[in-house]
Amino acid sequence: MARLSRVCPVGVPQHVIQRGNNRQVCFADKQYFSAYAHWLQEASRKYQVDVHAWVFMTNHIHLLCTPRVENAVSRMMQTLGRQYVRYFNFRYQRTGTLWEGRYRSCLVQEEIYLLELYRYIELNPVRAGIVEQPSDYVWSSYTINALGKASELCTPHALYRALGNEESERQASYRQLFKQHVEGELLTEIRKTLNKGLALGNERFKVEIEKLTGKRVTARKAGRPVGWRKKDTVHK
Length: 236
Fold this sequence. Notes:
Blueprint: E1 14-19, H1 30-46, E2 49-56, E3 60-67, H2 72-92, E4 104-108, H3 110-122, H4 124-127, H5 142-145, H6 158-161, H7 167-177, H8 184-196, E5 199-200, H9 203-213, H10 228-235
Parallel strand pairs: 4-5
Antiparallel strand pairs: 1-3, 1-4, 2-3
């Protein structure tokens, strides 16, 4: 199936994932995680992308971010990817690719799915069996959003700020969201839309995005198009 062209409207949040080629390790130890976080911060500032949530796993990363100018996420990811690959290859005295092709992304409808994506991303280490609690994993934004750890990388989304009038109130409300895991149909939908580059939202949201961008963000129906038999008969 042909890959959908990239859609990156200003002000619409995106869920981004980038995996290591053949699921290979991309972050060997603390130095590698720290380097990636540093360059992500620099690139997000340079290209005007607000980063709300993230997790860095050993062989892939997730981001939840909002571009403030056209094509900002693409520019950020291209710069970050190239810079980190040069660093990784130099440290390991290797050449060639590190990432599994280009990054994948999907647009996110704020009012329905944004806080679900916060949870999905920061619970990744728990689902993977690495830790029991999201607070136990260093390389995610959970301790910032839930516990108030200072960060120059994290930009709170308006829906996060709406969780409470004070920081302590917002953090307490945020922690309550993690009483339940992301599972079932929601988990399947998040993964499907991300892997296929679709939009995560209701039908109204998808129609609005397609009108805004002129590009398809919904899956095509399986099978041949309606009327294909009739066309074949006419041309015989």
